[in-house]
Amino acid sequence: MTVPLPSLFTRRTLTPSGIRINTLSGGKASGRPVLLLHGYPQTHVMWHHIAPLLAEHHTVVLTDLRGYGDSGKPAGGASHEGYAKRSMAYDQVRVMRELGFGEFAVVGHDRGARVAHRMALDYPQAVTKVAVLDIVPTRHAFQHINREFGLAYWHWFFLAQPEPLPEQLLGGDPDGWIRGRLSMLRRGGQPFDPKALDEYVRCFRDPAAIHASCEDYRAAATIDLADDEASAARGEKVTAPLLALWGEHSFVGRHYGDVLAIWQQYAAKVDGHALPCGHYLPEEVPLETTAALQDFLHDN
């Protein structure tokens, strides 16, 4: 890792269900635990501004999702179950249990927020609070596809194409893909730390990481959507308090109108607001994002 986190964070490798999960933890030992989950195409390093601040009052756990960073990259399988958000959520719950946390809050950005959403549905006894950064639920997104969505989220459909087309194209210039995607979606906030960008590129150069990330999006369009439809049919909602934060200038902020009203269809208790940035809240406006999270995570 080229972007150092303070020495209070200890790195370890855990293997829930046999899948290697790169894990860092640290902070206030007596503080309530909070799990931070990154998005695409990043790693746990995306929290490098926020984790030390949250660690002043919480025990903070950061991981690389399966398929990303320095975590294991299993095969997805014909059904893409290996990268279902249900499978990824199970990894993270097992990690927290191995660290001694039966209950915890979870904060997710982008793909990590989709994992957090599924986790809150599948493990309501474990998730005490959930914060989702710059997403609407996967099911809602697929149900409301239009021209604007297709132009903005075209990568959803490109990455979900059958193997090996996207893998071959991304493998031709992984550096350009990562730097291009990140710069395209940053709007108005502070620039990325060059060392963080270098880390994202280092991890994405691995062909196994490219394949795993494609499997992530294939799962979203298939098994994840089926799981979400089944949850909706059963009337399941997130019961833990949910905080939704999004970028004022991101596609979520510009396209979806009343984001809180959307989340209220999927969760019982919803709060949140926009922040003055694009998609990458934790890196574009880290202080504003941290303040919102600290207020939400504080015990009332």
Protein architecture, described:
The termini are far apart. Strand 5, helix 3 and strand 6 form a beta-alpha-beta unit. With 300 residues, the chain is an alpha/beta fold. The protein has an eight-stranded mixed beta sheet, with helices on both faces. The model has no long low-confidence stretch (mean pLDDT 95). The protein has one domain: Alpha/Beta hydrolase fold, catalytic domain (Rossmann fold, 3-Layer(aba) Sandwich), CATH 3.40.50.
Secondary structure layout:
Blueprint: E1 10-14, E2 21-27, E3 33-37, H1 51-54, E4 59-63, H2 85-98, E5 104-109, H3 111-122, E6 127-133, H4 138-143, H5 147-152, H6 154-159, H7 165-172, H8 174-185, H9 194-204, H10 207-220, H11 223-233, E7 242-247, H12 251-255, H13 259-263, E8 270-275, H14 281-284, H15 286-297
Parallel strand pairs: 3-4, 3-5, 5-6, 6-7, 7-8
Antiparallel strand pairs: 1-2, 2-4
